Amino acid sequence: MNYFFIVIAIIFIIYIFRMIKKKNFSIKESLFWVVGTIAMIIFAVFPKLLDNIALGLNITYPPSLLFLVGIFFLLFINFRNTQKISKQNERITELAQKSSILEFEIDKLNKGETNE
Fold first, then answer.
1. 41 and 9 in contact (C-beta within 8 Å)?
2. CB under 8 A, 24+ apart: contacts of 54-62
3. Cα→Cα distances 93→83, 90, 102, 107, Å
């Protein structure tokens, strides 16, 4: 059992919950990080589990499985963030266009012009 990784994982979970409590992190987004941290605790408590899973997948060097899972996890998080950024950019463009139209309408009303 590796106490160092267990302590780090517990500190990380506490940090995540504090961020949620301060409303700096949504519960939905934190779910992936909590799951990853729990997996870290499981592998720290049961180190032979990683060896058995790697053996079952015909991976000769078990730590490479850990890196592979970590890379896929980070790629998944990156993909989700890219999706969200794309949606936000579209929404910002839409809001900027609506704001410009409203400003134009306000200017017309201030100048006494009608919509006819």
1. yes
2. none
3. 16, 5, 14, 21
Say what the pLDDT of residue 63 is.
86
The pTM for the full model equals: 0.67
Domain boundaries, the chain: 1-45, 63-116
What confidence tens digit (pLDDT) does each residue in 60-115 have? 998 898 899 889 988 998 999 999 999 999 999 999 999 999 999 999 999 876 55
Structure tokens at 109: 């009303």
Q: How far apart are CA 15 and CA 73, in angstroms?
A: 19
How distant, in Å, are the alpha carbons of 12, 15, 17, 32, 72 from that of 22? 15, 11, 9, 18, 29
- Sign of the Cα torsion 81, 83, 86, 88 reads negative
